[in-house]
Amino acid sequence: MKSLFQVGVVLTVCLAGELISGVLPITIPTSVVSMILLFVLLLVKWIKPRHIEQFGDFLLKNMAFFFIPAGVAIIEQFDLLKECLFPFLLICFVTTIITFAATAYTVKAVMAVQKKAREGRRDE
Amino acid sequence: MSEFFASPFFGVVLCICAYAAGLWINRKTGSPIANPLLIAIAIVIVVLLTFHIPLESFNQGGDLIAFFLVPATASLALSIYRQVWLLKRNFLPIIIGSAVGSLVSMGSVYGLCRLFHLDEVMLYSLLPKSVTTPIAMDVSAGLGGEPSITVAAVVVTGIVGAMLAPSLIKLFRVGNSIAAGVAIGTCSHALGTAKALEIGEVEGAMSGIAIGISGILTVLFAMALM
Questions:
Q1: B40-68 residue pLDDT tens
Q2: A103 and B158: CB-CB below 8 Å?
Q3: Hey, is the C-beta of B104 within 8 angstroms of any chain A C-beta?
Q4: Backbone phi, psi, residue B6, to 5°
């Protein structure tokens, strides 16, 4: 009963997320709306971690598994991709690495600036 | 026999076996290229092609698994909540990092597409490839791309991110769990986040936050292009 309750809570949040996503003026998918909604509900403590922990951790620990069908669907695009397979793969590879580096360095740079600002204030 | 393959149990069992094999090979080799998801996808595709099983039959079970993508993404809220003090303390670095990363992602795709003389359809299909599938598909369709190519690009990007994440953290000497997590989520959405969760709790939570932020920002940037 306890685990069924947990599944119920998470799926109810997803259902609400679907409703909200439908009425939003810009397209934000159900999954992202549900994530934000669940986060807000946890913050205001309407939902406590113990209400969803077992089911939530099950989903988090096996996250990659749920992507298998989406990946398999690539076979539908084989013909389309055959013509430009090399640039397609190269673009996916190179831009992912560039994006990773740009993001990581930006986060670190902003942190460094904040740290300096805090220290500067302390010196005054 | 075709009835057997069209049973929803077939798709689900095939995926579980393929993923178990992927995990086993990953443990045996310990190599990042032996990504369990990549191996599982390859095994399923080989099985489908060998036995001439149509994708629709496989999807009887596949759709049941894909159903859990939304609750799984929503569950990221739980891992973010567990690290909420880190989010509060590093709000600006996380937001600015994600924003810069999303812009760099779209900019680098644009530059490379021009370099390879790819057409507009390909460019618009690849532009949103670093964000989570549903957002990427909507952005692609809105710009005039081909959503099916976008899905393929999103998955390939996610696998590349998941595969390379541990090496990239070392290569670029990130040495900071927050920066690493935000970078993984911004460049390779939920698929990279699955890997980030394995690297550490902080990395996983930050990566989850980055999915949401980079996703929403990409929608806004794309609206500026339309």
A1: 999 999 999 999 999 999 999 999 998 99
A2: no
A3: yes
A4: -85, 0
